[in-house]
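Handoff note, outgoing to incoming analyst
You'll be picking up this chain. Sequence as last confirmed:
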Amino acid sequence: MLEQAPLPYTGDRVQVDREALPRSKPHAMFGRRFARDLWRLTCIYWASPAGRQGALLLALAIALEFGAVYGNVLIAMTQRHVGDAVQDKQMSEFFAAMARFFGVVLAFVLVSTYRLYVRQWLEMHWRQSVTAYYLGRWIGPQAYCQQERHPDEADNPDQRIAEDIRSYVASSLGLSLSLLAAVATLCSFAGLLWNLSADWPLHLRGKPVRIPGLMLWIAVIYSFVAMGLTHLVGRPLVPINFNRLRVEADFRYGLVRFRDNAEAVALARGAAFEQGGALARFRAVIANWWQLIAAQRNLSLLTTAIGQVNGVVPLLIAAPAYFAGWITLGSVLETRVAYGQVSGALAWFVYAYQEIAQWRASVERLSRFADVVDAAEADLSRPDGIQHDRVAGEKLRLVNLSLQLPDGRVLLDPINATVSTGERVAVLGGVGVGKTTLFRALAGIWPFGTGRIEMPARARVMFLTQRAYLPIGTLREVVSYPAAADAFSEDKVCEVLRLLDLKRFEAHLHDTSPWDQQLTDDEQQRLTIARVLLHEPDWIFMDDATAALDEAMEKRVYEILTSRLPTATVVSLTHRDAVMEFHTRRWRMSTNDQGRATLHPL
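Most recent structure output, in case you need it:
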């Protein structure tokens, strides 16, 4: 094999086309579909038993939010007293007002601190419940069907569960409580602001015009104009954030995949190819990032300008009244605080817009993921698909079983077959003929087709694939999988390891390591056979599960299965003729003139 030169290092700056990412059509921020998605996500936690404790935490969080708002009201009132004392040069009143001020501030600090603590407590409780729900729905038989049917509609499910749920819960709680605080602030300060500016005249063409509650109306008009401009400028953030989550996950997944296959890449001299692929995925991240920072720049320019201008509005309006002697300096300070609170509450949408956009993207990604899981579950239970029945008796029956692709194309013509308990049956067929699809149908994860599969009701079944799955954990956990590590005694585990020439691993039973990288292919397949010997199932289905073994070890494996599990039924789907001699019944799977597979006895 020719050596491939590594890609040259070009420095930290990555040249990307800022238009490299296709721009998604802007999604509607709110609408009927969004309301449906949000209601569905909300019910996962709040309609569950865990939601009862969450309701208590939420009530406490709301009480603390109200306490913080009331603290702001008290601070505004004490600031007025301080200002009036300074203006009147009353030292005793000044120190008394300052004492009240510091007391209010201390209480406010305590309430604000525990407000954050309770919110974080509720956030983790909520996230734990939603994560458990999605894990329960994703990790199951429908996971394979989901990947087969909807690979693009629910990309990176791991990222959606880990990151999207965290973002959704944090933003849902933060936005809802901050909105509640904004409403409470508005109710608390609106009357105060109305009273403070009840008699202020507005000079138009030299004539005083009195508008009751002048400052309140100015705050309302200013805030609504700001909200409209913010929505117009910030709307592109929704699809940009949706794509950001996707491209970041794609980039991370590529790096993890290389890490897990570093040896194979090194042997294939594929470093240049992998570097090129990683940089291409990173260019998509950079292109999305340019879109994001450009949109955030535009929004920040607007919101910063709105905030700065809004800060001087109360002074501009109050100054003439103060200079005319109609109000005191304390009233000016109190008006400024009250106006800031009212306008801040009314402008909640303006300052929360970026987080709303991120939250909206998380809601949509989680909802689409749930839709895909629903579709996969519907496929598995479709009435016109392959029916799986647990029946009385001791036989496996295939009744008019036909296999199809998801698009409806027929893979296997209808077959009828019976396997009795204790039989050893081999299904021989070439690569690509459809053996693995038949294997998946028998396991109940391939619903596409027609007919019925009947399995003995009390049968304990194990399915072994060509590529062994070794979970993360100690070697004893790997061997005992899917049972717990302590389900079998250590002596029994060591015994089956010795039977399969895996004695050297006895000393490593309690070690944790990436075993799928530490063990060779044949050792991994022997480890899955060890699981079978530990679990002692009644029915064993094997899809080229001994393909990595040499002939001597393969023969030994079947002899061990016969001696240790004499009553177990073994169905082997294989492409190796040598396996046929270890079975009492033999079928061949081949393709006919129409390109469809057929099954017939040998």
